[in-house]
Amino acid sequence: MGFCLALAWTLLVGAWTPLGAQNPISWEVQRFDGWYNNLMEHRWGSKGSRLQRLVPASYADGVYQPLGEPHLPNPRDLSNTISRGPAGLASLRNRTVLGVFFGYHVLSDLVSVETPGCPAEFLNIRIPPGDPMFDPDQHGDVVLPFQRSRWDPETGRSPSNPRDPANQVTGWLDGSAIYGSSHSWSDALRSFSGGQLASGPDPAFPRDSQNPLLMWAAPDPATGQNGPRGLYAFGAERGNREPFLQALGLLWFRYHNLWAQRLARQHPDWEDEELFQHARKRVIATYQNIAVYEWLPSFLQKTPPEYTGYRPFLDPSISSEFVAASEQFLSTMVPPGVYMRNASCHFQGVINRNSSVSRALRVCNSYWSREHPSLQSAEDVDALLLGMASQIAEREDHVLVEDVRGTGGHSCPVQPGLILARAAPWGTPGEPPGPWTSVQHHRP
Ligand SMILES: *[C@@H]1O[C@H](CO)[C@@H](O)[C@H](O)[C@H]1NC(C)=O
Ligand SMILES: *[C@@H]1O[C@H](CO)[C@@H](O)[C@H](O)[C@H]1NC(C)=O
Ligand SMILES: *[C@@H]1O[C@H](CO)[C@@H](O)[C@H](O)[C@H]1NC(C)=O
């Protein structure tokens, strides 16, 4: 066993250090897939490893069948009941919209459980008749199709080994949302020249996600527009979910390329690989520093304990309870609209697709939007980030604004269906329903 691992290590790492070839990188390059971060438990925190459970699984058959009605309440009913309430109440801690979406960005770096499983397994979520959004005409037969996520194939075989969802990204805070969770993913983002991440026609933006297998490309529910055009290639599969998350991906993209350019000026003899890995190392360190020492303390109102050294016995796996609770917590703070401000902090009008101007980017019309007229240049993205940084988020409570909940409202002609019980398909007991679904819906 030890020999096999040593051999695998040599084969895997060998690609970086071919014997005899001159190796310009003298340090151990961090892998993209999270393997071997822990030298005892090589798999811990790696892409594809299973989520932890804090409480025992609760499946209908004890193995993998989700519990549903009548044992559990209808997810849509539950969602509407617990998350309805007034919008416009401000965060009690003055948390900003930027803080909320930075949280989503950090989450996308740590966990992804949205990739559908194979073979596909569908669950239909029954919509209560007369639902103002999905069944206004009281047909009574409307369902939201929901695909179960990927699981660890070594689980789900018996009551003593119930199904566990698998994390499709590394569980480490290692910049996988910027560079991808595999070597091939990172390669697909690189230009292989000057250590840069590949940009599109405008150097401030990555190229479009050409590889449909890489980036998730849901249709824009507002226009029906499909395909990868207008969606960027990021390290996070769902980094294009809305312009607010995209803005953070664009920020790290620009920061990487800025460092690659700086290093290239300082070290004219360095080649692409050296420039790329050095820039990556700096970007990840900066990102970790912001996340752990700036964002987390301000977000939790707690200072993390002093770092006392590496603890090899600590399993870094994310728990399914944490995923459901943190997403739910963040979504209660999403506002119905996000402002943009220019460099002197004046509010900027937002140009809609129909050329009218509104005061803010409406959230319900922004999911999976492509090429928004107000987000065409690097300055526009700056204006959005500035707006997010100076806007107080919604209150941390049980209320989801209707843009997130997916309920009626004439100001939003089309809304994504965002109301689903995520907990039951994972066999996690006692969790509130999560708001996200892999299927987008047009308003009937
Ligand atoms: C939030 O901001 C307001 C206005 O600046 C201030 O009065 C209040 O004390 C702040 N609250 C917290 C918890 O920082
Ligand atoms: C920001 O917008 C305001 C009003 O639209 C304008 O007066 C100001 O010059 C702008 N500032 C910059 C830096 O463009
Ligand atoms: C244009 O779009 C905005 C937001 O999508 C909407 O509020 C407005 O009513 C539309 N205006 C016209 C003239 O259609």
Automatic annotation (TrEMBL):
Signal recorded as keyword: yes
InterPro entries: Haem_peroxidase_animal (IPR019791), Haem_peroxidase_sf (IPR010255), Haem_peroxidase_sf_animal (IPR037120)
Molecular function per GO: heme binding; peroxidase activity
Organism phylogeny: Eukaryota, Metazoa, Chordata, Craniata, Vertebrata
Entries under PROSITE patterns matching the protein: PEROXIDASE_3 (PS50292)
PANTHER family documented for this protein: NAD(P)H OXIDASE (H2O2-FORMING), OXIDASE/PEROXIDASE
Name this polypeptide is given: DUOX1 isoform 4
Segments for region (Disordered): 150-172, 424-444
Alphabetical keyword list: Signal
Signal sequence range: 1-21
GO biological process terms, semicolon-separated: response to oxidative stress
Designated gene of the protein: DUOX1
SUPFAM superfamilies given in the database record: Heme-dependent peroxidases
